[in-house]
Design goal:
The complex is a heterodimer of chains A (984) and B (216). Chain A folds into four domains: 264 residues, 2-Layer Sandwich (Alpha-Beta Plaits), CATH 3.30.70; 215 residues, Rossmann fold; 141 residues, Dimethylsulfoxide Reductase, domain 2; 148 residues, Beta Barrel (Barwin-like endoglucanases). Chain A is built from 26 helices and 44 strands. In chain A, helix 8 links the parallel strand 12 and strand 13. The longest helix of chain A has 19 residues. With 216 residues, chain B is mainly alpha-helical. Chain B contains nine helices and one strand, in the order ααααααβααα. Chain B is elongated and about 90 Å long. Chain B starts with a helix and ends in a 24-residue tail after the last helix. Classes of the chains: A alpha/beta (984), B mainly alpha (216). At the A-B interface, strand 2 and helix 24 of A face helix 4, strand 1 and helix 7 of B. Strand 2 of chain A pairs antiparallel with strand 1 of chain B.
Chain lengths: 984, 216
């Protein structure tokens, strides 16, 4: 590794290591008493006097009237279910406390999630308690009853049938077999009805390309575990593409450093994605260059031509014939046909690209949507039923879609939340949240996943299945609609010889069951014709689903809005990402608001200068500018200098879907030519990494040595030769501390594998949910007062398009010589007998000395009482963790509540704690298994072994704080740039 | 200025002395020792736990499994009170009266048990009433612990701590009363003791004195 390799965070590193400062009005320099001080003191004295004399309020204890047999108040129960947050269908375990779900975790047995869970799914639990959901059926915006709604709908559908106009059922990809069955019945009943599926983030080109190449429209399964060589063309498969949790799990399995070889991952992309950040080699190409590159690779594979970098890639692919995998996230049929050809010629079909049990996660068709738009324009559609999608927002033609809708007499929306499309419909059938409904889904052929309700339905809602089933004569309970369907057909699909009841019980208990896969008839491979696509040069738009927002369906989720983007660290906004070179060329700087124009339409966005991005690209994330986000206007604490999160009538971020265009009906996310003009305005970007950055001053280094970098890195080649390569070890630190803290019982420790971490931020949200970390709002983030206990530091190395990116999850390091502890004047932060740095809220008086003295900058101060006004939303709070009040410091507690619970459990069972009994929230959710936690006193524990691993190091080791959280060197599978790291 | 300060100090001193030597008991805010509120139903622990010797965990069965010991659901009361509707004395009296008057015994329900029946949505004889929904009894919580303290009954039951150690001699209380002050010092008095006496614990109980034993 290059000795001079230096990681940096911000271009402007002057903001590093600043003290924790308060609001300006708190920093008075005058010692004179003024009127305000007098009033404050008088008020405080009065309040203290009143508190001391007032009666303690009477608390009520209200038990159940009739106690459900299996429920004991205060005890957590876990139910298996399936996530419907993004459509990849991860199996989840739902933690249920006192009959309400409070936390989601990946189901370790489920083949898709394998125990991990993405941030979006983790955060989706708060949407259950959204008081602004639609809780009653509505006709013409008036609350109604289901009986009235049913008769209204049936009357209108019959009328439409008589008129001979089309009835169109517009849905997202239907993955539930029973839903498919009831839709089929519905289409049979109304002969003039048709079903159109589309995905808000379209994968249509992959399916269409398979139709060209194999004669059937299907989406194959990808096996990243078997792929020794991965070429990803703009597919963010570790972040947002298709099934990121499953892919991350599989990807990780083939990167086990103990084995002889690990997979090699080449990412070709135009913007910087988390997948690109993780890649062993990253090649930056504009969309036009990418198309050329794929063509060149295909040509080289066929005819051994010479095409520079393409030849290099082709050679590598050839070397791993049958063990390579080429994927592309570009929704372009030309590229996808080329990808199919490459995979075919490499013999990957059946090995890493599986046709036998295809994926049903995405099945939407852009062609069908285009057809629907034509139909609507010509006025042929008499009734439109919309479920699970929001076309007025999603589609580039959203505005015209809304206009056409006005001419349709019957518009029925199936939506749990108010959205752009639902507000144009005359009937709304509110859907329950997935945590309160039944569903059966086959996201992947052969795996039937079960969704079961984990709470009494909060409103008068019903599933799409029940509505459609009811309208076609299948009136039954939610559960029975599914159960009866499977009772009829289970013999044809079940594996093994269980009775139906047994089979069903297993399905509900386990959350999934393996069934006989539904295969597709794959025809003989045809090469297919490539259209002559004219690659556009010049500045083009690249629209991508952001890791937090995806297509925008979770825009009302405050946790996701405040989750910093893993790369840009931007919250509460989307921005126009420009490369530094392009920005300079255009004469714009960060935070300037620019106008991005394409196809005669425009949008105003703030500039974010993004390293590692193609110079010909403006990258903007989708999913912002959703109606419904105006609710966040007043989010954040109320105080005199408060700035509203949003201005009047403003939405969070900007919608850019209308700038997109279709190429031969296929929605194209990259490649629209844009022009940029300055507006002269500037915007406040709420970035989280402009502060709380770590610093290692040169003078902390031992004599004649250099300070050690935060990110230590090596290559796989060097690692094989010397496992300690890249790790800067061997410095002996002289300590003045006495070793008088024997940790007799346990000594908790953690290790984070930087080689595994993808920066996906699942741990950040998991920590937020588990520990009741408040949302503070855009203004507070901007004022550097976000409350995250766990953050992911993103470091760059190099400049321009050639940057390397490293992620480092940063949390309280639970130092054995904690710098925060000696400075606390009231002993509110002290060390436990098990090596944890404890923060005692009720003792803290808020001097903030500890935060200033923390070299890792992980302590967070409660400047305010953050909003907990919404009683329904408060149901998501974890009752085992205190909700902190104003004026106290807080930080990672190493999920002490989980440690305590495991200890109590072990004691009750009379057995000692075993390694792995305690899983911290961050560790549990990590799709890359990057986090290990355990007892350092147990020599057999995983953590003890990792501490002895030559890759293990501590951040800021020279300060001798002796953290118990350590990191493992990042290992990339690339050629050595220089010989290994320096030692000692 | 100096003079004023002296005056204020003197006033505070005198006030403090008055508080200490007055008849009223001085206690810290939040201390609810001897709290004995009136409950919606005159439930007698003396009768149930004392005289009838119903084990604590028959009703408070959450104690061994959860944080909360739990206030029993009304249907738990009904386990017995489906059959027991009045005191024995009242029933004897009615029996005698009936034999004197030469008639059948009238069904008897004591006033407090009627409250249970009406909570369940039953009539005063304890028979379900069609279409009448029940409503949980709203008990007044006696033993309150602040939100910043995590307390769990489970490990204490595991360790063999007797209920009466913290809750006092409930079996002699007509109305439930908080006998201890439930302060941190009081908790620590016990946590600091050598736990040899607690034999129920499988491994000798560790002295749990870390702040984060309870505060997180």
């Amino acid at each position: 590794m290059n000795k001079e390799k230096k990681y940096w965070m911000n271009k402007d590193e002057t903001t590093v290591g600043e003290p924790v400062v308060g609001p300006a009005d708190l920093q008075t320099t005058s010692t004179e008493w003024n009127r305000r001080d007098f009033l404050k003191t008088a008020g405080f004295s009065l309040a203290a006097f009143m508190t001391a004399c007032s009666k303690t309020p009477v608390n009520k204890a209200i038990p159940f009237l009739i106690q459900p047999e299996e429920i004991i108040p205060g005890k957590a129960y876990w139910y298996s279910s399936t996530s419907h947050a993004c459509g990849s269908g991860c199996g989840v375990l739902v933690k249920n406390r006192d009959s309400r779900p409070i936390k989601l975790e990946g189901n370790p047995d489920h083949p898709a999630s394998q125990g991990g869970l993405c941030p979006v799914c983790q955060a989706s639990v708060i949407e259950l308690y959204d008081s602004k959901r639609i809780y009653n059926p509505q006709i013409f915006r008036q609350d109604s009853t289901w009986a009235a709604l049913d008769s209204f709908v049936l009357k209108n559908l019959n009328k439409t049938r008589k008129q001979g106009k089309k009835i169109v059922l517009l849905t997202e990809t239907i993955t539930s077999p029973s839903n498919k069955f009831y839709i089929k019945k519905f289409l049979k009943k109304y002969a003039n009805a048709s079903h159109v599926e589309y995905d808000p983030i379209s994968y249509s080109a992959i399916l269409d390309a398979h139709e060209v190449n194999y004669g059937t429209r299907f989406l194959p399964q990808y096996d990243f575990e078997k792929a020794d060589m991965i070429l990803s063309l703009d597919a963010d498969f570790l972040g947002t593409w298709l099934s990121p949790t499953q892919f991350t799990k599989d990807y990780r399995k083939n990167r086990n450093l103990d084995s002889k070889h690990i997979s090699k991952h080449i990412q070709v992309e135009s913007r910087l994605s988390v997948t690109g950040a993780k890649a062993d080699e990253r090649i930056v190409k504009s969309p036009a260059e990418m198309l050329q590159l794929v063509k060149d690779i295909e040509n080289t594979l066929q005819s051994n031509g010479e095409h520079g970098i393409a030849t290099k890639i082709a050679k590598a692919l050839k070397h791993y014939k049958g063990k390579s995998l080429v994927i592309s996230g570009v929704n372009d049929i030309g590229i996808q046909i080329l990808v199919n050809r490459i995979n075919k010629s490499l013999g990957n079909i059946g090995k890493t690209v599986l046709h036998n049990n295809p994926s049903f996660q995405k099945g939407g068709s852009d062609n069908a949507v285009s057809q629907l738009l034509t139909d609507m324009e010509s006025g042929n559609v008499g009734a439109l039923l919309i479920a699970g999608v929001n076309p007025v927002y999603d589609l580039p033609e959203g505005e015209s879609f809304g206009e056409y809708m006005k001419t349709i007499p019957t518009k029925i929306s199936f939506s749990g939340k108010q959205n752009e499309t639902a507000e144009l419909c005359n009937v709304i059938c509110p859907l329950p949240h997935y945590l309160e409904s039944w569903s059966d889904d086959e996201f992947t052929s052969g795996i039937l996943s079960m969704t079961q309700p984990t709470i009494q339905v909060l409103g008068d809602t019903r599933t799409f299945r029940k509505s459609i089933g009811g309208w076609t004569g299948y009136e039954d309970g939610e559960r029975n609609l599914i159960r009866n369907y499977w009772k009829k057909i289970y013999t044809t699909r079940k594996k093994g010889s269980q009775s139906f009841n047994r089979w069903w019980d297993n399905l509900v208990h386990d959350g999934f069951v393996m069934i006989k896969p539904k295969s597709v008839s794959v025809g003989r491979f045809k090469k297919g014709q490539l259209e002559k696509t004219l690659a556009k040069n010049g500045l083009v738009l690249v629209a991508y689903p952001s890791l937090q927002m995806l297509d925008g369906r979770h825009a009302e989720n405050p946790w996701l809005q405040e989750l910093p983007d893993p790369i840009s660290k931007l919250t509460w906004d989307n921005a126009a990402n420009l490369s530094p070179k392009k920005a300079k060329e255009l004469g714009v700087s960060q935070s300037d608001v620019i106008q991005v124009k394409a196809n005669g339409k425009s949008v105003e966005l703030p500039v974010y200068i993004q390293e590692g991005q193609s110079d010909d690209v403006v990258a903007v994330s989708l999913g912002y500018g959703r109606k419904g986000t105006e609710r966040f206007k007043n989010l954040g604490p109320d105080w005199i200098q408060k700035k509203a999160t949003l201005a009047e009538g403003e939405l969070v971020g900007e919608r850019i879907n209308h700038l997109l265009e279709r190429k031969e009906n296929i929605l194209s996310y990259s490649g629209v030519s844009v022009s940029i003009s300055k507006t002269g305005k500037t915007a406040d970007l709420a970035l989280t990494q402009t502060y709380n950055t770590l610093k290692n001053p040169e003078n902390t280094a031992p004599p004649s040595m250099k300070v050690r970098p935060f990110i230590q890195e090596t290559t796989f080649e060097a690692y094989k030769k010397d496992p300690s390569s890249g790790a800067h070890r061997g410095h002996q630190v002289v300590t003045l501390w006495r070793d008088d803290h024997p940790y007799e019982k346990h000594h908790w420790g953690m290790a984070i594998d930087l080689g595994a971490c993808t920066g996906c931020s699942a741990c950040v949200i998991s920590c937020q949910v588990e520990n009741n970390v408040p949302v503070v709002g855009k203004d507070e983030v901007f004022r550097r007062r976000d409350m995250a206990w766990m953050r992911i530091d993103r470091y760059y190395s190099g400049e321009g398009t050639d940057v390397d990116v490293a992620f480092q999850p940063m949390l309280c390091q639970h130092c054995d010589n904690s710098p925060c502890e000696p400075v606390c004047p009231v002993l509110a932060t002290v060390h436990s007998s098990e090596g944890l740095n404890q923060q005692i809220y009720n003792r803290c008086v808020g001097t903030r000395f500890c935060a200033n003295n923390c070299p890792y900058k992980v302590r967070r101060f409660n400047w305010f009482d953050y909003a907990h006004d919404d009683e329904l939303e408060n149901m998501v709070l974890n009752p085992d963790v205190t909700v902190r009040s104003r004026g106290v410091m807080e930080k990672c507690s190493m999920c002490i509540q989980r440690i305590q619970e495991a200890k109590i459990e072990a004691k009750a069972k009379g057995i000692p704690l075993a390694d792995g009994d305690i899983k911290l929230a961050c560790q549990q959710s990590c799709p890359a298994d990057a986090i290990t936690f355990g007892d350092l006193n147990d020599p057999e524990s995983d953590i003890s072994k990792l501490v002895e691993d030559p890759r293990h190091y501590h951040v800021l080791e020279e300060l001798n704080a002796r953290p118990t959280v350590g990191y493992l060197t990042m290992v990339r599978n690339r050629e050595d740039e220089n010989e290994g790291g320096h030692h000692g | 200025m100096q003079k004023q300060l002296k005056l204020v100090t003197l006033l505070i001193l005198v006030g403090g002395l008055l508080v200490i030597f007055s008849n009223s008991t001085f206690r810290m805010p939040g201390n609810q020792q001897n709290y004995e509120p009136i409950q919606p139903i005159d439930f007698s622990h003396r009768l149930h736990a004392g005289e009838m010797e119903v084990p604590c965990q028959y009703c408070h069965y959450g104690a061994s499994q959860s944080r909360h010991a739990g206030i029993p659901a009304t249907n738990v009361c009904m386990n017995c009170h489906k059959y027991v509707s009045a005191t024995r004395d009242d029933l004897r009296l009615e029996e005698e009266q009936a034999s004197v008057e030469g008639r059948d015994m009238k069904p008897l329900t004591s006033l407090e048990i009627i409250k249970i029946y009406s909570a369940m949505g039953y009539d005063p004889q304890g028979n379900p009433v069609e279409g009448k929904a029940g409503k949980s009894v709203e008990w007044v919580k006696v033993h309150n612990i602040p939100d910043f303290v995590f307390f769990s009954h489970k490990p204490h039951i595991t360790a063999g701590v007797d209920c009466a150690d913290c809750h006092g001699d409930v079996s002699s209380m007509e109305r439930i009363k908080q006998t201890e002050d439930l302060s941190m010092g009081w908790c620590l008095d016990c946590h600091r003791k050598d736990h040899e006496s607690l034999t129920a614990a499988p491994e000798r109980t560790q002295l749990l004195l870390d702040c984060a034993t309870c505060h997180y």
